[in-house]
Amino acid sequence: MRLLLVEDEVGIATSLKRGLTADGFAVEVATDGKTGLWMASNIDFDIIVLDLMLPGLNGFSVCHEVRERGVWTPVLILTAKTGELDEIESLDSGADDFLTKPFSYPVLLARIRSLLRRGARERPTVLEVDGLRLDPATRSCWREDVPIALTPREFDLLEFLMRSGSRVVSKDEILEHVWNPEFEGSPNIVEVYVGYVRRKIDRPFGTETILTVPGSGYRLAESGR
Ligand code: CA
């Protein structure tokens, strides 16, 4: 099993490498975030053990960027900080597990083995309706092969509509899912944003993907595939 260890503390890196090698892993070490990112994106590893506090680029950024590049190797983040925020940030960044320092070597090994048993996480599916594709992992959008730049709100709106399929969704439902729950403005904001999205995904292509259902809301055109 090929393991990438990204750790800037030489003492820890050396002793972990020694232990993991003795346990049968082929270990490569990177001692800063940028090198770690390069290796994780260009070399095929079975698992990545990533320290959080790194020179150059921290562990969250490395993990996030690795996922953006479409690499789904399991990632275990090592953090010296304790607290719920780390857990949330680790999992948000696309990591599969995290371990707080100091940890014992047997615990680390058990976590690594458990992640290897689980295997690489499934790449989030690219949503597609009639040539319009939306990739929630990289937050990108294309029609045929033309990339479409969406603002975060436009992206969230389109993602929600695409996930709802041909079901009719009301403006209130859209507001609830796409806008902040505390949003107290007019539901007409939804209309405005649907207009923005149509102007980007439909108008230039002569397509009609988002249909208005008078008095009810919106639905997507049937995919036909
Ligand atoms: Ca460190």
Brief summary:
The protein has 225 residues and is an alpha/beta fold.
Task: Describe it.
This protein has 225 residues and is an alpha/beta fold. The protein folds into two domains: 2-118, Response regulator (Rossmann fold, 3-Layer(aba) Sandwich); 127-220, Winged helix-like DNA-binding domain superfamily/Winged helix DNA-binding domain (Arc Repressor Mutant, subunit A, Orthogonal Bundle), CATH 1.10.10. Helices cover 40% and strands 20% of the residues. The chain has helices at residues 10-22, 33-42, 59-68, 84-92, 105-118, 152-164, 171-178, 188-201, and strands at residues 2-6, 26-30, 47-51, 75-79, 97-100, 127-129, 132-135, 140-143, 146-148, 210-213, 217-220. The protein has a five-stranded parallel beta sheet, sandwiched between helices. A four-stranded antiparallel beta sheet has the order 6-7-8-9, with helices on one face. Strand 7 (132-135) and strand 8 (140-143) form a beta hairpin. The longest helix has 14 residues, at 105-118. It is elongated and about 65 Å long. Bound molecules: calcium ion. The site of calcium ion (CA) has 5 residues, from loops.
